[in-house]
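worker-3 :: picked Solute carrier family 35 member B4
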Amino acid sequence: MRPAFAVGLVFAGCCSNVIFLELLARKHPGCGNIVTFAQFLFIAVEGFLFEADLGRKRPAIPIRYYAVMVTMFFTVSVVNNYALNLNIAMPLHMIFRSGSLIANMILGIIILKKRYSIFKYTSIALVSVGIFICTFMSAKQVTSQSSSSENDGFQAFLRWLLGIGALTFALLMSARMGIFQETLYKQFGKHSKEALFYNHALPLPGFIFLASDIYDHAVLFNKSELYQVPVIGVTVPIMWFYLLMNVITQYVCIRGVFILTTECASLTVTLVVTLRKFVSLIFSILYFQNPFTLWHWLGTSFVFIGTLMYTEVWNNLGTTKSQLQKDKKN
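worker-3 :: tokens ->
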């Protein structure tokens, strides 16, 4: 029952979260900082109440280690959300972030001296080609959709390049954070809920440096059209409603993934998360009418097929099936 409930939370929470993020970004592309701050604040308050027991519970992992992890997590979150302000369309944003396997493999080879099978190298090559195709086709769209002025088109393309650079940096930083987190869990044990709280609570003072931008967007949110919230009938500026729903769905998404990781094998988690990303991508293309060519579809298929190949899903499913048949005979 709990795994099915967790899958429902992942799909409902994560897919809805992407929808509300795109609604926010389409109206105000530079709202990434206020969105990140709201998400961090909500999860930090919830964790302070229920995980840290109002500050009375001592952390299992020393704070100095969390300080390093938090620096990386804060940077990744801010950069990923800010990339939407740099001519990065939501579908490309989702596809690019699906390339985490590439970053994990590269840093695993460099830092952990890992070696992989030819099959895994092939799957990573497939993901890389897929991301390259989508990125290249998006670059052509940026230049063609820009103003007829050559100067304006060049500036739009430079902003897009900066956005790609930001996503690449965030991807590598996220992979490095994963490796650091893995070493911490080996040393001190796995404390996912505690890490979730400290990763969101400790960076809050850092938002002081972004206070001006957050305030400016709060003013813009106040000026947005009014919207009557269903059921409760309260009227609020629609941008604040979108932000509230984004924060709530982000929490639902995180909780769903957490339950899934504790109840299911890593293969199942990978499959659910990959399928969720694909559903979010399809919805973004159809509902928001984001431009998506046949080349984009080809690149997307490469990314998802490569991801499934990397997890060796077919071999694992075959093993599971044979095991079930053996159990039946016994």
